[in-house]
Amino acid sequence: MSRMRAALLATLLALAPARALTAQAAPADSVTFRFAWPVGTDARVRYTELHERRGDGGPSTRVEIEGELSMHVHEHRRGLVIEHLDPLVGRFQSSPPLAADDPHRIVYARLGTPTPHYVVSPEGALLAVDGAPALGAAIESLVGPAAAEPLARELLNPALLLGSARERWNALVGMWVGTSLRVGEPVGAEAEETNPLLPSVVLPHVYQFQLVGMEPCGDAPPASARMCARLEMMSLPDPTQLEQTMNKALVDLGLPNLAFDGLAQHTQVSLLTDPATLMPYQLTVSKLVEGILKEGTESRVFRRVDGLMLVYTY
């Protein structure tokens, strides 16, 4: 088992987008985080993904992907464009196994999860995603036009691409830019977020942000010569309100025979970053949603886990 995979599996918790903390005057012993990604920056990004589904109405599934891609920072008329190119998958594993000719397997084993380019403002806000046509062409070259069309509708859905990009960018930059934190002094915040099970449901979440400490940005030069901040974020909705709101949503959707019980959602982010620029060196994010779904007199336990680890080498 690779170090990245072991680290990801050991820290699987949960990912959700969060608003940035309100900027305030920084105490003398605090660390302030600013967005300043240099134009011309190149990085190789190694990643590990894990997705588990249990009790969703079909067989339990598990997908793991390890690979790497190139990241390039360029000027853009709206600020910057963060390009993601040259994907290379080193390991793909699924349970139950996908057939060798399954279009999903072919794409995941060659391209990984399609990652678009990010267009961001000079202040560090995600404005848009770009590059979907090129991703669609890459998928078509692998599986052919007939299989590519439904697969592109699934994997390159504009709302899905933008939502995933927003979650990742918030974890990297958005929730930290302009904030000041002291080591070991958590800061709380509240925000409304979309529920991953029913996107039409928006619920208040409580967030905790913390500067764990300062440490070398990496194990080898030049990263080892720089000091980075180890940041953590955890978010939780109120469990009672979560369950009540979700059950009401099921009724509103015309599904009064369904009900959630013991519903829980947990989110965590761990980021190693340069405070002066918010250039990342390591990011671990994860999302856990679990509970019991009742249908009449029947019930089943369901669990959804999504984890991601990124390691940047400049």
Briefly summarize what is shown:
With 314 residues, the protein is α+β, with helices and mostly antiparallel strands.
CATH topology name, in short, is: Lipovitellin-phosvitin complex, beta-sheet shell regions
Oligomer: single chain
Largest sheet: 11 strands, antiparallel
User: Briefly, what CATH class?
Assistant: Mainly Beta
Cα separation of the termini = 25 Å
Q: Helix share of residues?
A: 10-25%
Total domain units: 1
- Shape designation: globular
Q: Give the CATH architecture.
A: Roll
**Tally of separate helices:** 6
User: Number of DSSP strands?
Assistant: 13
Q: What's the order of the H and E elements?
A: HEEEEHEEHHHEEEEHEEE
Average of per-residue pLDDT values: 88
Major sheet: arrangement of strands = 6-5-4-3-2-13-12-11-10-9-8
Could you outline the blueprint of secondary structure elements for this entry?
Elements: H1 3-10, E1 31-32, E2 42-54, E3 61-76, E4 79-95, H2 103-110, E5 117-120, E6 126-130, H3 132-143, H4 145-155, H5 158-174, E7 180-181, E8 187-194, E9 202-216, E10 227-237, H6 239-252, E11 258-273, E12 280-295, E13 298-313
Antiparallel strand pairs: 1-7, 2-3, 2-13, 3-4, 4-5, 5-6, 8-9, 9-10, 10-11, 11-12, 12-13
Write structural notes for this entry.
- With 314 residues, the protein is an alpha+beta fold.
- The protein has a single domain (14-313), classed as Lipovitellin-phosvitin complex, beta-sheet shell regions (Roll).
- The protein is 22% helix and 45% strand.
- It is built from six helices and 13 strands.
- The protein has helices at 3-10, 103-110, 132-143, 145-155, 158-174, 239-252, and strands at residues 31-32, 42-54, 61-76, 79-95, 117-120, 126-130, 180-181, 187-194, 202-216, 227-237, 258-273, 280-295, 298-313.
- The strands form two sheets. An eleven-stranded antiparallel sheet has the order 6-5-4-3-2-13-12-11-10-9-8, with helices on both faces.
- Strand 2 (42-54) and strand 3 form a beta hairpin.
- Helix 3 (132-143) crosses helix 4 (145-155).
- The longest helix has 17 residues, at 158-174.
- The two termini are 25 Å apart.
- Mean pLDDT is 88; it is low at 4-27.
